[in-house]
Design a protein that fits this description.
Helix content is about 75%, strand content about 0%. By secondary structure, the chain is an all-alpha fold. The two termini are about 25 Å apart.
């Protein structure tokens, strides 16, 4: 099995020309029953060895942290962070293993963030300022990791740390804005979504690493966009009314239209829990308690399966309605 990274490496080494790589990718794409664009493919696992290595890495990182914590929590965190980078030198830098690379990236950035919080906590700073500074250091750590290894999820991890840094800095400097936390989170979601679309539009055929970067950014943007909206509707307050359930439905349809248009399913997945809870609550209020969730899950599950089956046809119907300038930035229709 050959990955996009293998093809890129072969092109850089001069084994294959740029024209040959492009022609091969186009041949594979045309050969598929479902185009790779519509599959929303991203590289996560290449074989069971990935799982084997992940298990071994978890055991090693946990043991290193545990041993270090016998001295202090900071020492354990630093040792785990250093070990994560060291393991990445081989399993990411040389072996290019996808799943272990994701784990080691998260362990490294998370370790830097944790170590930063531990050190700054001794300086008697406010909680918000402590998290803001530690998140800024984590952003720098993610940047270093990206420069060295180019793991697609790194951009999303760095972006999440940057969002945390900015939000906590705002709360530390202007405490009054905490009352506007939902709009601030929503604005952060818009910013991350725009960044994701920039990466997406740079690879509308979804054949390079840039598409994988966009995928992870969309996973970060989705909850930031969805949660504030549904929270404003008081979906989880318990006493859900029909108008709220109706609004949730219309909102989910709007999210589905956006997802189909950009050919990304992350937003729909993020909003799914709210829709399930809303309809289950309505059915319980009408006396259908024991089977309320079953009926809700059956209806929504059936709808999502139908949407998946006709996803490509829905895109064919929606895309021509958009301006040409926007269409040129979206994944192509096949």
């Amino acid at each position: 099995m050959y990955s996009n990274d293998d093809l890129d490496s072969a092109e850089k080494a001069g084994v294959l020309s740029s024209k040959d790589v492009t022609a091969f990718r186009q041949y594979v794409s045309d050969k598929r029953v479902t185009p790779v664009v519509d599959e929303e493919y991203f590289r996560l696992i290449t074989g069971f060895n990935d799982i084997f290595v992940v298990i071994a890495c978890v055991l090693l990182l946990t043991s290193v942290m545990w041993i270090g914590k016998s001295e202090s929590v900071l020492v354990g965190t630093v040792l785990q962070t250093v070990a994560a980078w060291g393991l990445a030198e081989y399993f990411t830098g040389k072996r290019r293993m996808a799943l272990p690379s994701i784990l080691l990236l998260l362990a490294f950035v998370g370790g830097v963030l944790g170590a930063g919080v531990i050190v700054l906590s001794a300086l008697d700073l406010s909680k918000e300022l402590t998290i803001a500074i530690a998140s800024a250091v984590a952003v720098f750590a993610a940047w270093l990791h990206w420069q060295r290894f180019k793991v697609p999820i790194t951009i999303a991890a760095g972006t999440a740390a940057l969002v945390s840094c900015v939000m906590m800095a705002i709360f530390a400097l202007v405490p009054q804005v905490r009352e506007w936390i939902a709009p601030i989170i929503f604005l952060a979601g818009i910013a991350v979504f725009v960044l994701a679309m920039r990466w997406d539009s740079s690879d509308i055929t979804r054949q390079t690493r840039r598409s994988d970067v966009a995928f992870w950014l969309h996973l970060i943007a989705a909850p930031l966009l969805v949660h504030p909206i549904f929270s404003a509707l008081n979906v989880f307050d318990g006493d859900l009314r029909i108008w709220q359930a109706s609004f949730v439905t219309m909102l989910y349809i709007g999210i589905a239209i956006i997802s189909i248009t950009i050919d990304r399913r992350a937003m729909m997945v993020s909003a799914l829990i709210y829709v399930l809870y809303a309809f289950n609550s309505v059915l319980e209020q009408y006396g259908i308690v024991s089977l309320g969730f079953a009926f809700t899950a059956f209806g929504i599950g059936s709808g999502l399966l139908l949407l998946s089956a006709f996803w490509h046809g829905c895109r064919k119907a929606l895309i021509p309605l958009l301006p040409v300038k926007i269409i040129s930035k979206l994944p192509a229709l096949h």
